[in-house]
Every structure is written in C-alpha cells, then in structure tokens.
Input
Amino acid sequence: MRQPAFLNENDKVRLVAPSFGVTIEPYLTRHEASVKRLKKEGFRLEEGNCVRLEEGVAASASPKKRAKEIMDAFSSDASLLLSVGGGETMCEILPFLDFEKIKSLPAKWFMGFSDNTNLCFPLVVLSDTMSIYGPCAPHFFEKKFRTAEKDALAMLRGKKHFEGYPKYSISKSNPKHPLWGYRLTKEKIITPDGYKKPMEGILLGGCLDCLINLCGTAYDKVKEFNAKHPEGVIWFLEACDLSPLGIRRALFQLKEAGWFENANGFLIGRPLCRDAEVLGVNRFNAVLDMLKPLGKPILMDIDLGHVGPSMPIKVGAHAKVTYANKNIIFDYQE
Output
C-alpha cells in the first residue's frame, strides 16, 4: 500500500470540489476563514476550477469537469487534495477517473468526508494508495483547532497515535452565525460487543450510503483486496441518510457480497438517525443482528460519523485499534 509523503511547511494544498462546491452559507464563510487559517499553518493553497461552482446536478459541475479537476490535481505539484465538501452525486465522476494513471503517479493524499467516500475508498482498492477519511476544507474555520481538525493536520504531518474525544454534539450550525464554534455537550458512550483484545489490520470503510452504491460495480474489487491482505481488515462504517432499517439492509448487502470475509473487527460510528427506531429496529440491533454472527469484535458509537466530532481515519493503513478507559485508541503501524 502506497503511503504519500507527510506534509511539511510550505507544501501545496489543492482545493477540489468532486461533490458540492462552496456557494452557500455557512460553508462559504467558513471556507474563507479556513483558507486563511490553513495558510497560517504554513501551507500554500490553490483552488481547482470547480470549487466556486454549482452548475452540476446536485454538484459543483458536470461529472466530466469534476473528474478533470481531480485528475489535474493528482498530476500537479500539490501534496494534498482537500475536498471542499460532501454532497450527493460524487459517484458520477468515477467513470471519468483513471485509477491506473493515479497509481502510476507519485502518491498524494486525498482527504474528504461523507460523499468523498467515493474517492477515499477506490483510491485504496483500485490505486493501492492511502487516503484520509477526514474533515473537508470548511471545517478548518476555527481560530484554534479542536478535536478532528487538529488530529487531521497531525495525521497529515505524520502523527501515529490518536485517541477519541470525551464529548460529542448533536447541535446544528446556524447559517446566520457561520463562524460559531461547535458545542460538544453530550457524554460519549462506546458500546463494545465481543471485544477482548486490540483489533489489528488494514482500515477500510467510509459512509455506508456510498459504499452500498459502489458494491457490485467496477469500483468494488473488495474480494481482490481481501485476497491481497491476509492480515485482515478492520471495517469502519458510519451512515448519513440511512434509517436504522437502511443500515440493516446495507450491512446485509455488503455481508452477502463477501466484503466482510476477511474482517478482523468493526468500528461503527454515530449515525445521523441516532435516536430513531423503526418497527423495532434501532442503530444497535441494526448492526448487531447483521454483524454479530460473524464472531468479530464490534465497537459502536465511536467518534466517527455525521454526529461529530469525527476522528480522521487513514484508509488503507495498518493499525492497531484499542478500547481502553471507555475510549478508542488508534495506533498506526509502519
């Protein structure tokens, strides 16, 4: 697995919009503040051609135009491709991306969240290149980085040890006050099932909404990936629009497609439907009914997902994941 070089001062960051562009509040104001903040960190920033657009179908631009922006960025002298947002239709750029060419180019980091699973995941299984499932550009707006944003920069600079956060938030942002910081008010409780010792293996996963859309397509290749990695996979999974029943169906689909045949364990994030229950199905039994028969350890409600803060995760990296003192700990291996 190719690991891109870690970032240094004065490295170039290319901002890209493979899904939504930055055109509405609070993201627009946060994006401007984030650009200034990242420059203070010593990075040189440049924007791709799609960043300020909203001319596509639920996207910044047409699939071809967005894909070209990505391919140009991989061919550039940037050290990091940083997505400016999630969205809905990033999957449509995949037919216009050349993953073999990306594999032949010097490895670069790509970082993004949610819909950006559509690149974080294929980069690993198709181009043998690590990515980071982490915050998008507008998340770096605060004057003093906290939690996920602080950890994401530390990860890009080479840090290997990360611990979860004591609290989380279910509050929503206020478009009238876009630079208000996040209020972390809820005590985190991780629910372990079958956990006895640290999990170890290759980290793979992302947003379930996107992964089930990739399953069975040319961008799947998970069976081939499993065959190449007998050390096993730690799956990290979270959900955005899926209901508890949707999560149950999604896990059934991926399990029956053979994705979990090489699993060493599962890390399940906080879904957006966190407190919902439909016909007796909630976020816990939706997962346990599908995954517990596999006999692998499961950690639920970890600091991952659309109920933040969400820890950055280095996709494709070998890691040891420990549950200790009611917290989750990632130790990335060489």
